[in-house]
Amino acid sequence: MCEVSGSLQLCSCSGDIDNLKHYWVLYRFIQGKKHIVIGMVLPPYFIDPVVDDLNREQLLLLLNEGNAFDFDITLNKKDRLVISFGIGNANSERINYGFTYHNNSWQQLEYDPLEWRWNHEETEKGKIKNALKRKREKEQFK
Fold it and tell me: Cα–Cα–Cα angle for 63, 64, 70, nearest 5°?
């Protein structure tokens, strides 16, 4: 199982993120937007709950230290950020971590791709460098 790297960096990039294995998307709150999206979301790829908790803690730490982005970014209250990791070979096998910006810090928020579009719009996106670190083989099978 893979864990989030302590040297993870959210990079700006232009173009399509659909073919990237690991990417991030920033959503900006739009006052008055009420775009209801209805559908069915596929459940996320299974991840060990212990590793999942470690990943959430590591991501929150990196985001709140203020050096996760490779460019200067101005954040607003109610901004949302999804950090998405491709696991395995299929692009549909993804683990997504959601965050919301409130009181000058990031907080965890469950990522719901349909609900997030109701009042928010994508404003920034990019590739994740140094995304994951692999556990040493001996540790994996303890």
Answer: 45
**Up-side HSE of residue 107: CA atoms within 13 Å toward CB?**
8
Most distant CA atoms of the chain, gap in Å: 53
Beta bridge partners of 24: 83, 126
Chain-centroid distance, C-alpha 40? 20
Q: 98, 78 in Cβ contact below 8 A?
A: no
Cβ neighbors of 64 (< 8 A, separation 6 or more) are: 105, 106
Q: What is the pTM of this model?
A: 0.81
Burial of 74 (0-12, 13-18, 19+ CB in 10 A): exposed
The token duo for 140 is: 């994996």
pLDDT by 10-residue block (mean), the chain, 142 residues? 83 80 91 66 69 92 89 92 83 86 95 83 90 59 34
Degrees (nearest 5) of the Cα angle 129, 131, 136?
A: 135
Alpha carbon separation from 55 to 10, 15, 51, 131 (Å, rounded): 15, 27, 6, 11
